[in-house]
Known about the structure:
This protein is 33% helix and 23% strand. The protein is of the alpha/beta class.
Amino acid sequence: MRNSRIAGVGHYVPERVVTNKDLEKLMDTTDEWIRERTGIVERRYFVEGTDTTANMGARAAEKALEMANLQAEDLDMIVFATLSPDYVFPGSGVLLQRELGIKEIPALDVRNQCSGFIYALSVADQFIKTGMYNNVLVVGSEIHSSGLDFSTRGRGVSVIFGDGAGAVVLTPSQSSESGILSTHLHADGEFAEELAVLDPGSNKQERLTHEMIDEGTIFPHMNGNMVFKHAVTRFPEVIEEALHKNGYKPADIDMLIPHQANLRITSYIQQKMGLPVDKVMSNIHKYGNTTAASVPIALSEAMEEGRIKEGDLVCLAAFGSGFTWASALIRW
């Protein structure tokens, strides 16, 4: 069974920069409060009429294809991870396909929120491992800003999230000892409502009501303490799982790219794994939490900055709504 490898990476973020100072004008918060609790300084918000979840993914995909020295028509499949699709249905995968000008290849949508990109990567990896497809595009793209509560009631969540997209192209590896070595996926639905948008939903006769809007159930709800507690447990667990599976230890990691949820969580993981700061990628200060887009954006920036080179051992890890958590170990 052959391995798959990441042949190209790319990302796109909207032009509109929103700073903590900008949010001070909308709600009772401060730049100091946000920085202290999250590490976020600014984030990007989409520009209506210019950016969509699908076309941001397409811009990221074009860069990934260029690095992979492939054309869109060379793709055999699209796997698109997002919690903020352009429409209720169809999913954004087919819209991305249209943006790229290709037809008839399968387009699969993955809904695993902050873990979505690694879940999607795992799906694509299996299709290449089995020999069914050769070139698979994996995208994580999100527009959060149009679905946030910018009142003081929603500040605990709304200051965290941003918009953006990242993509990778997977192709077969020429060596069984390089590429994606393994992926590890987990979930625990017991805590599903601790980080969720509850309305509108199909489990109610009236999917959207004035009461839902007034009560704020159409906006993200997060039990921050609960999420933090589980994240700092599951992140190290799933990283260790990937290392153990492949006979490595934390010191062997050349670059750890965790989901950008909170700088305090990233710092905890770094210390728990005993890694130096320069071996852990962090860009949350620039983009906030872009859920399914955060890992590929960070991966793309790490490549741009020359922080990943051929032969490096790279670990991707994520934790988020569901609860879901996942990791991937890659020999670059």
